[in-house]
Amino acid sequence: MTGNKKTVSWREDPWQEGKWLDLWSVNHVLAGILIVPALNWIGLSPLWIFIVSFIILFGWEVSEWIREMEALTNQFMDMVTNYLGFGFSWYLYFIVDKSFGVVWFWAIAAFFIVLELWGWLSYKHKWKDQEEE
C-alpha cells in the first residue's frame, strides 16, 4: 500500500505490504492454483482457460496499479506468484493429467477464503486506525 501508513513490524501486522513478497503472496499463489480447476470445471478448453486466467490475474493487478495500492516491485511479484500457482495447476491438469478432485479444490478454496477475509479485515482495521489519528 502507498499513502500515509505508519510502519509496523511483521509481528504487529503480518499483512503489511512487503517490498517484494508478503503474506498476500500466498493468496496470489492460491488464486493461481484455483483458477485452472474452476475454469476447467465450467467446461472451458485449455486455450480459453489460459486466456481467461491471464485476463483475470493480470486485470486484478492492473486495477491495483490504477488505484496505486502497492509498490511496483510488490505488484510485479504478485504477478509472478499468481502465475507460479497457475503454472503448477496447469502442469497438473494438462501435462500430468492429474486433477485436484473436489475435496482438494474446496480445501484450498477454504484456505484462500480464510486468508482473504483475515487480510481484508486487517486492511480495514489499519485504515480505520489511521483515520482516527
Could you explain the architecture of this structure?
This protein has 133 residues and is mainly alpha-helical. It has one domain. It has four helices and no strands. Helix 1 crosses helix 4. The protein starts with 23 loop residues before the first helix and ends with a helix. The model has no long low-confidence stretch (mean pLDDT 86).
Query: Residue share in helices?
Result: over 70%
Mean pLDDT: 86
What is the alpha-carbon Rg in Å? 16 Å
Weakly predicted, low-confidence segments: none
Largest sheet: none
Throw out a few tags for this protein.
4 helices; mainly alpha
Summarize the structure.
The protein is mainly alpha-helical. The protein has one domain (24-132).
Compile the SSE list and pairings:
Elements lengths: L23 H18 L4 H21 L5 H24 L5 H32 L1
